Automatic annotation (TrEMBL):
Belongs to the carbon-nitrogen hydrolase superfamily. NIT1/NIT2 family. The keyword Protease does not apply. It comes from Natronincola ferrireducens. Keywords: Hydrolase. Residues 5-249 form the CN hydrolase domain. This is Predicted amidohydrolase. GO terms for molecular function: omega-amidase activity. CDD domains: nit. Pfam families: CN_hydrolase (PF00795). The lineage of its organism: Bacteria, Bacillati, Bacillota, Clostridia, Peptostreptococcales. SUPFAM superfamilies: Carbon-nitrogen hydrolase. InterPro entries: C-N_Hydrolase, C-N_Hydrolase_sf, Nit1/2_C-N_Hydrolase, UPF0012_CS. One of its GO terms (biological process) is glutamine metabolic process.
Amino acid sequence: MMGKFNVAVCQMLVTDNKKKNLEKAEAMIREAQSQGAQLVVLPEIFNCLYNNDYMREMAEDFPGVTTTMLRNLAKELGLYIVGGSIPEKSKEKIFNTSYTFNPEGDLIATYRKMHLFDIDVKGKITFKESDILASGEGITVVDTEFCKIGIAICYDMRFPELMRLMALKGAEVIVVPAAFNTTTGPAHWHDTIKIRAVDNQVYFIAASPARNLESSYHAYGHSTIMNPWGEIVATTNEEESIIYGEIDLDYIKKVREELPLLKHRRTDLYRLEILEK
Ligand SMILES: O=C(O)CCC(=O)C(=O)O
């Protein structure tokens, strides 16, 4: 295992033009690699606008044009890509799905969003993913040459049980492609990222799209990399940008030794378990 590696988050501006979105993602991944990134993360629903009509229309079977682009790029550039998420069509269903490729271009993880974003904050924002999306059922922790990485999508990060289970399955980094909005973002984005990192003593990487005011959904932006002590490694505002950070695996070890939260759980008194479905 290597002690350190470099990550980048591409906070791209997603538009209603799929071809342009794919070109933008590719250009930003190339730029990130040229700056030394070994793992690059894209935001939630990066190939089309985040609303139910677009997601239904743009849903892709696997393999499709988006995943083929990611696969080829990972291989050509020799890096890991956590491909944000895209609407995936599988038989009659649509999922919000994140595909991860390794530097050989192999698909090493497919994660389907487990907690669907069905909310109604009166007078502010109403969204009902379950009108078109089906939910995934599998927790995803993937092995890489650096460490184990847990993958979840946006609303999932509000569920401490899922984040903890990923840490218990060995995740030292949790990657969450996400798109909070201008209501829930200012209220909860920063605190949720920080506390999930601190609770689980992981690096927490939250990747948002940039804010597109022409979209019906105004993403909060503010992609962030947080370290296991709750310190910001990198962050940004709502505009298009790439943020970079170093993941230091020895630092995770140090924090976990000095403050042994994972060891101090009272599993004789309470327990968290994964149920087979
Ligand atoms: O939890 C939130 O506030 C935002 C969630 C969201 O936008 C999503 O799950 O796509």
